[in-house]
Amino acid sequence: MLKFGWMLLLGLCLSTGCPAKTRVVSLTKTRQGQQAPAQKSHLISPYIYGLGSYFWEDRAKELVWDLKPTLYRWGGNTSSRYNYLTNSWNSGADWYFRNHSGVANNFIDTFIADNKGHGAASMITVPMMGWVAKDGSSFSYPREQFPKQDSFDGDAGNGQSGAEKLKADPKTTSIPVTPEFVGAWVQKLKSQFGNNPHFYIMDNEPMLWNTTHRDVHPEPMTYDGYLKLYIEFASAVRKADSDAVIVGPALWGWMAMQASAFDVEGPWSNGQRNTDKAAHGNKPFFEWFLEQIAKEEQTRKISLLDVLDVHFYPEKSNWPSGPDNSPAVRKQLLRSTRSLWDRSYTDESWINEKLYFIPRLKEMAAKFKASAKVSIGEYNFRSEKDASGAIAQADILGIMGKEDLYAAQYWDFPIKDGTHRNAFLLYRNFDGKGGSFGDRYLPNSAGNQEDYSVYTANDTSNNRLTIVILNKSTTEDQDFDLQIASYGKAKSAKIVGWNTTKDPAVMEKYEKLVSAPQGIKVSTKPLSMQIVELIY
Predict the structure, then answer these.
(1) Among 246, 285, 288, which Cα is nearest to 373's?
(2) Cα–Cα dist 103/60, whole Å
(3) How confident is the model over 353-409, as pLDDT tens digits?
(4) What is the rounded CA–CA span in Å between residue 264 and residue 258?
(5) Residue 17 — left, alpha, or beta (φ > 0 → left; ψ -120 to 50 → alpha)?
(6) Which one, of 429, 495, 491, lies nearest residue 464 by Cα?
(7) Cα–Cα distance between 368 and 290 in angstroms, integer?
(8) Which residues contact 247 (CB under 8 A, 6 or more apart)?
(9) Which has the closest alpha carbon to 90: 186, 229, 204?
(10) Whole-angstrom Cα distance, residue 47 to residue 51?
């Protein structure tokens, strides 16, 4: 019987006694509760297999439910001005600052009910910018009022005239709302959907409001301005639902963690940047914000922030998405996942710093308060039409499990004709019958290397062992010799995988049953991924 305290010791055959390109992997049992130095097994949070969504996406048509997502986030720019009473929203700068309406049924009610029916938890973004759409048809920059604009969609303009950003009247499209408006919505959802986990995200990317929603919020957000808003609206959520899981601040990325929008956009004092940051002890915004929320929680004796949420999009953009599928570009994409965990890796973008993003956020959460969790609320490493993108995505899901991340939401979902969906299938539905990666991470000595990654887990509910093997080499076959004699004879064993074809946008699935009396030899192709499942 597999024990939770068992671990896998995967030893690499470096030179002697092994054929070239072969990795010998030994699996060794240890006594119950015994751990390798600096390594621990742990339960994998189910919420790392999450997706994110706008309003208008047909999830059934895109075969999203085949991927067995565990969490679905409703967010994006349109969520910042959603009016649950009129079921309307504004598209902001994404599409001519237009209001839209979600037909007859309340969109969020349908969204949550659909998620619940598919066994997925819901994360709902609540507006706290102070404005929501008043109807489903207005737009902020009418041609008649602003005839000189750079572009139009019908009579709706983009609010830009050359270098000038035009000033709109917020009441053209929106109505002001208070924290009580959000509190009433939270009360409604709790009453309607019972005691499900209710995750509420405190708006979306606030340090971009002056760009995305400049028709109603043209002023760049400051440290103090955001803190005041957050406390008011988070308090309303907590008052409305004492069991709510409050998620925030949903920052857009690394730069938003460092400074306010005011510091980035100006105006600057005597040409000096970061004056807002300087006025707050030169502390990075996120660090300062967490300190202030901790003080407020102590004063009010309530939790205002349960899950720390920051978005992560790689800042390098020249990865394979079309004609450039060179090995060098693919290798850079596959290396980039190291920014999520590797303290020695320098991010290969304008950031040019060692990010080790998940450990960094977890350290900040632990310093904030012991119960705080961490979510990467939006992420996407792109290259959805190339096999390297799928291998990178599979690596990311393995990393998130290994690093004990609480939640993550791929934005917005792996497209039906793309390669990324294969990575989710690998972990969540590799056999088309709900076969998934184990729910308890087991440490191993192979881990994440330049040309391959190995992730291992067992199930807490049955005697099942799973091993994910990623061949990240762009040119070389690799063999993995899994030595498992010490586990005894498995009742059944199979390998399910995806190989890259001549067309980089297509991956070919394969499946085979294997015998495992002493071990399993897994032969892998370049840019391939596979999962080995053993039943004891």
Answers:
(1) 246
(2) 18
(3) 999 999 999 999 999 999 999 999 999 999 999 999 999 999 999 999 999 999 999
(4) 10
(5) left
(6) 491
(7) 6
(8) 123, 199, 200, 201, 202, 305, 306, 307, 309, 375, 377
(9) 204
(10) 9
How many C-beta atoms surround the C-beta of residue 227 within 10 A?
Answer: 18
Listed in sequence order, the residues at least 6 apart from 82 whose beta carbon sits closer than 8 Å to its beta carbon are 88, 89, 108, 125, 127, 132, 133
* Residue entry with tokens 């606030």: 206
- Name the residue with tokens 């991340």: 405
Q: In this structure, what token pair is assigned to residue 412?
A: 């917005």
Record the tokens describing residue 55, joined without a space: 């309003």
Phi-psi region at 199: left, alpha or beta (left = phi > 0; alpha = psi -120 to 50): beta
The per-residue pLDDT for 274 is: 84
Q: Cα separation of 202 and 223, whole Å?
A: 16
Is 11:468 a contact under the CB 8 Å cutoff? no
| Residue in the structure block whose two tokens are 């967010």 | 75
Structure-block tokens of residue 367: 């310093």
Q: pLDDT tens for residues 288-297?
A: 999 999 999 9
The H or E element that residue 198 is part of is strand 198-202
Place of tokens 């100006």: 266
Three-class DSSP category at 272 = strand
- For residue 529, give both structure tokens: 């991924």
Distance CA(122)–CA(199), nearest Å, equals 7
Q: Would you tell me how many other CB atoms lie within 10 Å of the CB of residue 489?
A: 13
The CA distance from 26 to 421, in Å, is: 30
- The whole-angstrom separation of Cα 19 and Cα 223 is 59
With beta carbons less than 8 A apart as the criterion, state whether 440 and 44 touch. yes
